[in-house]
Amino acid sequence: MFPETETAVLIVQLGGSSMSVETSSVAEPVSKKRKGWGQDKIYTNLSYLTMVLPGAIWLLLFAYLPMPGIILAFKTYRLQKPPADFWIQNKFIYSLIKSPWVGLKNFEYLVLPSNMESTITYIRNTVLYNLLFMVVGLVLSVALAVIIYELTNRFWAKLYHSILFLPYFISWIVVAYVVYALGSANGILNNLFQAIGWQPLEVYKLKSAWPVIFLLANIWKYTGNGSIIYLATITSIDPELFEAAAIDGATKWKQFVHITLPHLIPVIVLLQILAVGRIFGSDFDMFYTLPNGAATVKDVTYTLDVFVYSMLRSGAPVGYPAAAAFLQSIVGFVLILITNYVVRKTRPELALF
Question: Where is the ABC transmembrane type-1 domain (predicted)?
Answer without folding.
Answer: 123-339
